[in-house]
Amino acid sequence: xxxxxxxxxxxxxxxxxxxxxxxxxxxxxxxxxxxxxxxxxxxxxxxxxxxxxxxxxxxxxxxxxxxxxxxxxxxxxxxxxxxxxxxxxxxxxxxxxxxxxxxxxxxxxxxxxxxxxxxxxxxxxxxxxxxxxxxxxxxxxxxxxxxxxxxxxxxxxxxxxxxxxxxxxxxxxxx
Length: 175
Fold this sequence. Notes:
This protein is of the alpha+beta class. Helix content is 51%, strand content 20%.
């Protein structure tokens, strides 16, 4: 019975040692992911955890600010009109998109107001991500309207499906 209790105590010690080693490994991994102002090894563990917590909170705040900025750029939140009446709203026009398939060529005409300039970049990105090669892209500005024209070449295999996918994806930007 003494041997059995000794074996049990040894097992518990081994389990506890493994747990401590695992925790030490996790703390070390967390510490390596956090940029440090001070020397890494000199800070006690609670200070390292506080630093990691503060870093994560700063990242969350930064993420929220970036989400707000993205929403503003995407036009979800309209800028406030200033004291000059509706003049600040003059550039706000909903975007329009026309997509024409001509064989393996794809022509995209994007018409936006001055406030939707990001749409051009998103359109280029979507076309590129779908595997089409952009041959030409141009724009012209008339008053507060921007006309973008993009010509892309769709690869021959599964061309019809790819062009349809691109069309659907681009229409989601506008509607």
